[in-house]
């Protein structure tokens, strides 16, 4: 039996709502119409839609807030923003905030039906991929939670990485890529023996070689998931160093993806400030001194500086200097 497709159309022009509705109902789609955002938001809280077509200039919401609301409540929906000629730049910007596509008004009803058929196929594939991704995330969090020492590591790394990404002004889309990569960055450790991962003493050289395989194993696990194409390079390269002494590829400087350079700083700080089977956690100030010491060698200096600003904003001292200026 053919699965139903549910479409929500949000526009303050009745004519637009009616013409969409007429064209889509004839195609067998289930269409819901909303004249403003507060009405649409009520529907979003109650129902799940496959596709949402929303005007970028609604009287009661901004474009970015609108997309964030949709993503929070209908995470598998395919989001299309629509705009008249005067607002087309806003519609294009909406892609940065997480919309999948945009359309310009006025619409050609026959063209829109053809486009919608393609989008319905695309949305189903994307939703399947995202569901698979959610399953992998659950696995990654289970891996994170299974022992006392790494409990919550990936989640905390993710929080630091997202804070850094915001601090340096990355877009909503880039931040989302970093967030998902953060949760999954050590997924390859599934393929490393517990006897090595949880060893209480120092690792032998052979054991260290095994541990260093986890980014490669992570990439192999995630490669079949199409929707992770943007996240995988961050996961694969999160142990590279600016000076080329990292792994797996020994990349240098800006050749390392920016998201991977961010994860590297967040990962190192979280690891240093938490207990490990072979050592106690370091005080924040000592860990910060280590980040500074390895600036330009292991870590991107701009990322370390951004992270120090984030920490200061959290009320963490980043120097012994008592006259340290607060970050506002
Ligand atoms: Fe790692």
Describe it.
With 328 residues, the chain is of the alpha/beta class. The chain folds into two domains: 6-126, Response regulator (Rossmann fold); 146-313, Hypothetical protein af1432 (Orthogonal Bundle), CATH 1.10.3210. The protein has helices spanning 14-26, 37-46, 63-73, 88-97, 109-145, 153-167, 172-184, 194-197, 205-211, 214-222, 232-236, 258-272, 284-293, 301-313; strands at residues 6-10, 30-34, 51-55, 78-83, 101-104. A five-stranded parallel beta sheet has the order 2-1-3-4-5, sandwiched between helices. Strand 3, helix 3 and strand 4 form a beta-alpha-beta unit. The longest helix has 37 residues, at 109-145. The mean pLDDT is 90. Residues 185-186, 214, 238-239 line the site of fe (ii) ion.
Task: Lay out the secondary structure.
Blueprint lengths: L5 E5 L3 H13 L3 E5 L2 H10 L4 E5 L7 H11 L4 E6 L4 H10 L3 E4 L4 H37 L7 H15 L4 H13 L9 H4 L7 H7 L2 H9 L9 H5 L21 H15 L11 H10 L7 H13 L15
Parallel strand pairs: 1-2, 1-3, 3-4, 4-5
Helix pairs in contact: 1-5, 2-3, 3-4, 6-7, 6-12, 6-14, 7-12, 12-13
The protein binds fe (ii) ion.
The site of fe (ii) ion has 5 residues, from loops.
